[in-house]
Design brief:
The complex is a heterodimer. Chain A is mostly helical. Chain A has helices spanning 2-32, 39-55, 61-84, 92-114, 140-162, 164-174, 176-181, 186-212, 221-234, 239-259, 265-279, and strands spanning 119-120, 130-133, 136-139, 214-215. Chain A has a two-stranded antiparallel sheet. In chain A, strands 2-3 form a two-stranded antiparallel ribbon. In chain A, helix 2 packs parallel to helix 4, helix 3 crosses helix 8 and helix 9 (221-234) crosses helix 10 (239-259). Chain B is mainly alpha-helical. Chain B folds into two domains: 1-33; 34-312, Orthogonal Bundle (ABC transporter involved in vitamin B12 uptake, BtuC), CATH 1.10.3470. In chain B, 74% of the residues lie in helices and 0% in strands. Chain B contains 13 helices and no strands. Chain B has helices at residues 2-29, 35-60, 68-85, 90-112, 117-136, 156-174, 177-187, 189-194, 199-222, 235-248, 253-269, 274-291, 304-312. Classes of the chains: A mainly alpha, B mainly alpha. The A-B interface holds A 35, 83, 86-87, 90-98, 100-105, 107-109, 111-112, 116, 225, 228-229, 232, 261, 263-264, 266-267, 270-271, 273-274, 277-278, 281, 293 and B 62, 64, 111-112, 114-115, 117-119, 121-123, 125-127, 129-130, 133-134, 136-137, 144, 190, 239, 242, 246, 275-276, 278-279, 281-286, 289-290, 293.
């Protein structure tokens, strides 16, 4: 039983990271119906910005995270402006293929500039300590990841529920044309959505760096895909769904590694995706809207 | 007159193909084509098979599949198990590769083709990865280490024959009533359903045939490059093929062939700069989608007619 709870604790921080990435997926999908394939790579860029902020500028971890979030927010806006905006009225397949292109672009420009090798997160930035609570060993990095992720989610909830921008975002995702008629600037709202989503991914990138102590240019692919699975699991476009989905994926992954074969870790995530898509494509929290003909 | 013309055209086609075949065979046997160019020639043919078969699914049927490398893996492993472990001739390996990949396509296609658009894309991507992870965990085929020292059996006649058969089957399928049904699914699924077309059936047919040829490509690949491992067939490989299809034109077989040749040559030229190669791929995807979403060729084909037009200088 103790071991099970220990696995649960381990999975919680991983789940928090997935949840943060999944939030960006879900927000972007909710507003322009695009699977932003490059989202995992924005997370990677965030991880690298955090890394350089820690090593070159010797900042502390919180500053590094804020720097990463700001950089990626700008990056997200630029990507949306250059690559996705011209395609807003084309087919969804065209937009998806473009997103795959953007994902490649971010990965290999990073490899081109920084080399393909992985870099170790400096120990001094985050000295690892283990606490023993009731027989459970809890690392301070787990606490850091979970607390900052939950804090960011609360801020996000506040923005979406209580601010004017959040109201505009909800309006655009509900009905874009009606939103325009109400005087909402759709372009601006979509830009803000990308900025917020990318900032969350960047925070997740720094956390991922702390969690695994390394960053590398291709580190965004697999967490990106898993976070996508999390978003679909919770019902894509639904924000609380992404949070729950993220935690479920994180827990599932640690359970599979802990009790089963860790080689199957990634396959299980994809298996979950297939099952969800086949049984309940709208996700756990999704409403069945039926197909319009 | 009509029939006679048709026959003459057929004879010309056969002659051109035979000439091309003998020419390349000649320069290979005389040693004019060194190892480096031979490898590229092989990659070119394999890529043509992959691009044409993926184009059948993505371009003609309009179902975005991102798991093509998975079927290639099935084909490669099935053929290697046959030829290396059961000591069967190459032809048995190839036939089994095609059958195994087609069966895989059927098993994966039936449930997933109910999904639409981007959901289908992600589901096929996931299934392709599941195939890879499964192969990594099968000890009989050495797991992640892969199989080494495969006898080289892929020769020019095999390659040429396989490429021609693939292109012919796809072209003839598209020009048949099946092909028209398949294209109608892409154009408007609801409308074609109203016309009494069993859309799921045609989607599955296209998917299975596409998967089958991917298996063929996998078998040819395995018996030329000595080594196969699951990592070779990850989703980056699927994206490689996707770049060819997108560049050539979604729904143009000649476009797929030209793009496959072009991309293979580009890959060979940029061999020492892998990062730049991938950046170029990325830019191709983005720029083509923004400025020419139908691909370079769109759904047009290069045919005798086009050449005739260029020949006589008419537009």
């Amino acid at each position: 039983m103790l071991e099970f709870i220990q696995q649960l604790v381990n999975g919680l921080s991983l789940g928090a990271i997935y949840a943060l990435i999944a939030l960006g997926y879900t927000m972007v999908y909710g507003i322009i119906k695009l699977i932003n394939f490059a989202h995992g790579d924005i997370m990677m860029v965030g991880g690298f910005v955090g890394f350089f902020s820690l090593t070159i500028f010797q900042t502390n971890i919180v500053t590094a995270m804020i720097a990463a979030m700001l950089t990626c927010a700008v990056l997200g806006i630029i990507i949306e402006k250059i690559a996705y905006r011209p395609l807003r009225n084309s087919t969804r397949i065209a937009a998806l293929i473009t997103a795959i292109g953007v994902s490649f672009f971010l990965e290999y420009v990073t490899i081109f500039l920084l080399g393909p090798s992985q870099r170790v997160f400096p120990d001094t930035a985050f000295p690892i300590k283990a606490y023993n609570i009731a027989g459970l060993s809890i690392l301070n990095k787990d606490i850091f990841v979970v607390i900052s992720a939950v804090a960011l989610m609360l801020i996000l909830q506040y923005i979406i529920k209580w601010t004017k921008t959040g109201k505009a975002m909800r309006a655009v995702s509900l009905d874009q044309e009606a939103a325009v008629l109400m005087g909402i600037s759709v372009d601006k709202t979509i830009s803000i959505t990308f900025a917020i989503g990318s900032a969350l991914a960047a925070a997740a990138g720094v956390m991922y760096g702390v969690y695994y102590s390394t960053v590398n240019p291709l580190m965004g692919i697999i967490p990106g895909l898993k976070a996508f699975v999390a978003a679909v699991l919770g019902g894509i476009g639904i924000i609380p769904g992404a949070m729950v989905g993220g935690f479920v994926m994180g827990l599932l992954e640690t359970m599979v590694s802990g009790y089963g074969n860790s080689l199957y870790r990634d396959a299980v995530a994809f298996g979950v995706l297939i099952l969800i898509l086949l049984i309940k494509p709208t996700g756990l929290f999704g409403k069945d809207t039926g197909e319009k003909v | 007159m009509q029939i006679k013309n048709k026959f003459i055209r057929f004879c010309i086609d056969v002659l051109v193909l035979v000439a091309l075949f003998t020419l390349v065979q000649y320069i290979i046997t005389t040693g004019l084509l060194d190892q480096y160019y031979q490898i590229n020639l092989v990659s070119m043919c394999i890529n043509i098979i992959l691009a044409v078969s993926l184009n059948l699914i993505n371009g003609f049927t309009g179902q975005l599949s991102l798991g093509h490398a998975g079927f290639m893996a099935i084909g490669a492993y099935a053929s290697v198990v046959m030829t290396q472990m059961m000591d069967q001739p190459f032809i048995v390996g190839i036939i089994l590769a095609c059958m195994a990949a087609a069966l895989g396509g059927f098993i994966i296609g039936v449930p997933t083709l109910r999904l639409k658009g981007d959901y289908l894309a992600i589901a096929t991507l996931a299934l392709g990865e599941i195939i890879r992870v499964t192969l990594q965990n099968i000890d009989y085929v050495n797991g992640p280490a892969g199989i080494l020292g495969i006898t080289k059996m892929t020769t020019w006649p095999w390659l040429f024959g396989a490429t021609v058969v693939t292109v012919l089957v796809v072209v003839n399928l598209i020009n048949s009533s099946y092909g028209r049904a398949i294209i109608s699914v892409r154009e408007d699924e609801v409308a074609s359903e109203l016309m009494g077309i069993n859309t799921t059936k045609y989607k599955v047919i296209a998917f299975v045939i596409g998967a089958m040829f991917a298996g063929l490509a996998g078998a040819l690949y395995a018996h030329f490059f000595y080594i196969i491992k699951p990592e070779t067939f990850n989703f980056m490989k699927s994206f490689d093929i996707l770049v060819m299809v997108v560049l050539g034109g979604l729904g143009s077989t000649t476009g797929a062939v030209i793009a496959a040749i072009f991309i293979t040559a580009l890959t060979a030229a940029l061999q020492s700069f892998p990062a730049i190669r991938m950046i170029l791929y990325a830019l191709i995807l983005i720029v083509v989608m923004i400025y020419r979403p139908q691909g370079l060729m769109g759904n047009k084909e290069l045919s005798r007619k086009t050449f005739g037009r260029i020949w006589s200088g008419r537009k």
